[in-house]
Amino acid sequence: FQRVGENTTITVNARVIAATNKDLKKAVANGTFREDLYYRLAVYPIAVPPLRDRKEDIPLLCAYFLKKYEGEFARKVKSIHPEAMELLLSYLWPGNVRQLENTLYRAMINSETECIDKDSLLDAGGNTENKSDANEKKTDNDVHKTDRIGFDPESVPEKIIPFKEVEKRTLLKAIKVTNGNIPQAAEQLGLSRSTLYRLVKKYGLR
């Protein structure tokens, strides 16, 4: 390329990784995205499903975000109560991972202990009312058993599960479902192979 006003050509060696939540093929057809730019970028497209279609990622993402923000608060939030996790797993997450991250961040601010409980999560949830799978499926007979975003308190144990245990269980499930195929398990979890190998070694799963 050449800088504006110069006639010297500069050579660079770079790889561009781009992401979007739009349907670029449709945008090209509609004339709202340049076709030549699309084909420059779409060398090897990777479709990432929305969070609602890969809810097994939610415990791992929660563990990551708790670790990411633990240094920002005087009180360390180390875990999520099973009731709160049930709410996270039942919600449809129209805003995907970014919405999950923001919700957890607010819940960490609201939490008065080292464990995020249901109340802290509900206070942080904003407009999560009536958008969960459970709310979509519940009947009039179930209304008295569920709260405002579809959580059924009778279905969740009272024991608090540390995030390390939640992470370990998720890894075990992925490895079992893929019959021990680590590359396939990594793909299912949305992790790189190296990250999954590190976690497998960390928990002594093989």
UniProtKB/TrEMBL annotation:
Segments carrying the region annotation (Disordered) are 126-145
Q: Does the keyword Phosphoprotein apply?
A: no
* Bias kind Basic and acidic residues: ranges: 130-145
- Record-level GO BP terms: regulation of DNA-templated transcription
GO terms for molecular function, please? ATP binding; sequence-specific DNA binding
Per UniProt, residues of the Sigma-54 factor interaction domain are 1-109
Keyword annotations for this protein? ATP-binding, Nucleotide-binding, Transcription, Transcription regulation
> One Pfam family of this protein, by short name?
Sigma54_activat
Annotated protein name in UniProt:
Signal-transduction regulatory protein FlgR
